Amino acid sequence: MTAHTSKVAIVTGASRGIGAAVAERLARDGFTVVINYAGDAASAEALAHKIEAAGGHALTAQADVADPAAVRRMFDAAETAFGGVDVLVNNAGIMQLAPVADTDDDLFDRTIAINLKGSFNAMREAGKRMRDGGRIINFSTSIVGTLLPTYGVYAATKAAVEAMTHIMSKELRGRSITVNAVAPGPTATDLFLKGKTPELIDHLAKMAPLERLGLPDDIANVVSFLAGTDGGWINGQVLRANGGMV
Ligand code: NDP
Hints:
- There is one protein chain.
- It is globular, with a radius of gyration of 17 Å.
- Helix 2 (about 40-55) links the parallel strand 2 (about 30-35) and strand 3.
- Helix 3 runs parallel beside helix 4 (about 105-130).
- By secondary structure, the chain is of the alpha/beta class.
- It is about 45% helix and about 15% strand.
- It has one domain: NAD(P)-binding Rossmann-like Domain (Rossmann fold, 3-Layer(aba) Sandwich), CATH 3.40.50.720.
- NADPH dihydro-nicotinamide-adenine-dinucleotide phosphate binds next to helix 1, strand 2, helix 4 and helix 7.
């Protein structure tokens, strides 16, 4: 067996949606990719096969990002298989909308656990273990800018991720590791489309002057830039990728 010499990227929530597009793109860019997922093993395995068939390297890793021990095991698995981690894409997330006054404790706790604690769990592990020269790419949302009703708790988790992004980029001084966040606008995935009428989808799509929804590949392009050589001077920033919506 030939040793892998490529850099290693963990992409959380990569079984579908934006994460799957990111994993596929980073594999094409030459990264060995760890495809994390929560429940959908079949989709994660299918993506790994697709990447391998195209000549790339991929490994699937089940881990609920809300569980710190599971996140640690995922980093262990990446280090055992490939010798280290160079890129973390903190993409896993959930979104369920409700006015603040109608949000129950369970929804609040789940959203915090996955979006905020989950991002923190992986950032902490990366901060301890990532190889020098690495890249941490977190996920926020352009809702932090538009501040639309019903997005209160979801936006709060992402605003917190943005704050940690800025601070961690300073804490990693001396290791040549950049920490940035991507903040997509409405993007055509289950997370965005589920439960919305065609009229509402059209309305939200037209908010951007480019007058369409983002596609997972639009976001994967941005992550590829931040993970690659050309993005190396970007640090401590939030890149909104939304066709100009906000
Ligand atoms: P999807 O719902 O399409 O996909 C979510 C992915 O996250 C799935 O692979 C899912 O895995 C995984 N996931 C969910 N919960 C967990 C968990 N606890 N642990 C590990 N993995 C988990 O979402 P998107 O692709 O649309 O969203 C990706 C990111 O982009 C999110 O952070 C979201 O907040 C952000 N975003 C999305 C926007 C949009 O319009 N789509 C706009 C702005 C930001 P499984 O299938 O195995 O459960």
